[in-house]
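Homework help board

Subject: predicted structure for assignment chain

Our instructor gave us this sequence and asked us to write out the predicted structure in token form, then describe one feature. I got the tokens but I'm not sure how to describe them. Can anyone check?
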Amino acid sequence: MLSILQAELIKSMKTKDKPTITGLRNIIGKLKAKKIDKGDSLTNDECILILNSSAKQLKESIIQYEKGGRNDLAEIEKFELKLLEKFLPEQLSEKEIRIIVQKHIKLIDAKKSMENMGKVMGIVMKELMGIADGKIVKKIVQEELN
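My token output:
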């Protein structure tokens, strides 16, 4: 993943696309920092987790900037988010997530009760790591268990 991002950075530098260069440097910086913290190379799954976390932070920043009337900063964050999403796997739709949640509820024979929320969420999130937003999964699991 890091090599792909660095290749994109080189392309952007050749075309002198400053916003893309800045965005890619931010993304690469986050990955390199985690690599140093870990003391070893990152797996592809670890990279995707980091990119998902960064995307979540960017979405929250956009909301805060827009609330504060700082649309100029929100636009910068939106650009970086769009850039980041190019390197993330396609996210599942709510319908696809619901099918997976229903399957796991049947597999573990979970009773339709909120007591089973943690058990179902743990199993479902392992399968959907990096391809589904945790908030959406939580909402769907709650709906299915009620």
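Reply (TA_rk): Your tokens look well-formed. For the description, you could write something like this. The radius of gyration is 18 Å. That's the kind of observation they're looking for.
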